[in-house]
Amino acid sequence: MDNIYLLMLIAITVLAIVDIVVGVSNDAINFLNSAIGSKALSMRTIMIIASLGIFIGAVFSSGMMEVARKGIFVPAQFEFGEIMLIFMAVMITDILLLDFFNTLGLPTSTTVSIVFNLLGAAVVMSLIKISQSETESLADLGKYIATDTALTIISGILLSVIIAFTVGALVQWISRLIFTFNYEQKIKNFGIVFGGVALTAITYFIFLKGLKGTPYYKEMKSVVEGNEVYIILGSFVFWTLFSFIFEKLTKRTSLLAVIAVGTFGLALAFSGNDLVNFIGVPMAAYHSYEAWVLGGMDVSMSMSVLDKKVPAEPYLLFIAGAIMVLTLWFSKKAKSVAETELSLSRQSDTHDKFEPNRLSRAIVKGSSQLSSYFGVLVPKSLQGKINNSFEKPQSIMTKDQSIDAPAFDMIRASVNLMVAGVLIAIATSFKLPLSTTYVTFMVAMGTSLADRAWGRESAVYRVAGVLNVIGGWFGTALGAFIAAGIVVFLINWNPSVIIPILLLLTAFLLYRNYVSHKKSSNKTAEEDSLKETGSSSVQGVILESADNISNVVKRGNKIYTNAVNGLAKQDLSLLKKNRKQVDKLSKEVDSLRDNIFYFIKNLDETSLRASSFYINILGYLEDMTQSLEYISKVSHKHINNNHKKLKFSQIKELKEIDVALETLFNDTKVAFESHSFEQIGSIISRKKEVLDLVTDKIVKQVARTRTEESSPKNTTLYFGLLLETKDLLTATMNLLEEYYNSHDSSVEPATISTDDE
Fold it and tell me: Residues of the signal sequence (predicted)?
């Protein structure tokens, strides 16, 4: 039984390596987002700078390790065996929780996860001890938990969210007021000073304040303390001179240096602050095991040894830093987390990842009203000057093009890095493990708000996204607390059986999530997905949109056939799957309609016929998808409600229509795939034949209803299907006629120039 603790220590060590990989995948993007979003530096340069910051920061992180040892619970109140169970439960729960959020692509906090895991496991273990004691009651829980320290840590984490958002918004608002969006000229005049201030702030707080949390500070203490003012002034002179020389030598803005140094500094601060989240518990477990062996291997010995300050082993920090750097380079999940923050902070409109909800709508409406009330207090002349500073340069891009463009400019990237780095370094110097995720995310959201990136077009979506992420943070805290408590309870019940089961379960879940994420990340644009057009003439739009029409009729044909087959076989799963397919098609058509504004803006005055043609075909596509949506929806509803199945004669008639439609749609698909638009005429000539077929079925159903039909639900369904099929045919034929009448093979298609003017 004694050997189980050695096996547990080995398992915890392996879990620590996995935890670093999982944790860095979530947190790495915190210090990369500003540089990536601004596209000021190449991706390779960004990664090299960040890697150096992480590696150096790992060496400086030993002072933070005390949090995992004694920051949440009182070690002296626990026996060795109980401490090891707590640490095992924390590591298992932490890995699964972080990997779950990584797979979703949502940034969560490794700090909150580890703090609440420790708290949950320690509370449950304390309750187990209290329940086994004859003298203790629930009131004695306070002597097991370091309540004051735990509350300080938790309140510091929550407070950092408010402070980060507020400070980020304020600094960005002032910066934008000074430099405006057309900052190139002002940067030439004031950029050197701005660079000096930004770099001074980054270096002072990160390299000096951040050093307070490390054992190396003792050697510098006599030099630093009392000379802060001189150090700040000296740094400002040095960095201002550096910015001047940098601009003269490279002929590029000093903001590049700010972003590079800021990325390095934020990576260093992240590593110094967050490494405790990954290896603090394993190191505490190692020191516990070491003390247990030296103490005679008594399982019931008190773990008061953890109250003492123990220096971290440099080689362990070195290994941890190396693993973090490797993860940074090779983790694909980090990119998924990046997309969320960048989409919410992007200056231009883009594809909205989150749907608006009641709360986001209420916040946006309330903020708009509040803004209008305060607007009355500010003189109009002053409002005009402020608005001029926030006037964005006109740039018309499609939503797909906006994703490839920089998410924001270098001014905002510099502020993001400067403010986040300063706040994290201050907390690190006070040994408060605030959440780097919360700070960097909320700073980015604050600067986005101040930059007016959340306009009337996108505010409800962006606010909903922020609320989703913040909700996930609370979910992290609650989930970590409950899950760690449950796991430690199960392990305590039978360690030798439960621990292997939990380790196997952890390995299985990690592998499953890895495979699932790999499939989704490798998935390129689907073969049948709809694509935006970039032509400026009718003939160009005809050629570019031909593939879209081919795909719609191909998918529409399949949706209609599945609806008929689902009704015939009463196959609910097929009909349910069919509804998802038509919903997907409908969203893609809606996305094309959303691009109309950008399409028309890009046209010149001689290309107005192209816009009219494009709008018409999108209207017909929407009519087609609406008919398919109705057919799919009512079919699913009928079977789902367990109504009477359609009669054999009705199914037979629907099959006849389906066969006729299949022929029509297949011919249409071939014509558009091969760009043989002359063939459309022969397809249109069959319009009356197919419509007459549907009309004939309607007449037959009327006769059946008068003489033999006994089910109102069946009658309603069948008439609905036939009438909607007529609408589907009408929309399809209108679409074909639009193409047939507009196509001219003798005209060379014109396209919009993508060259920079």
Answer: none
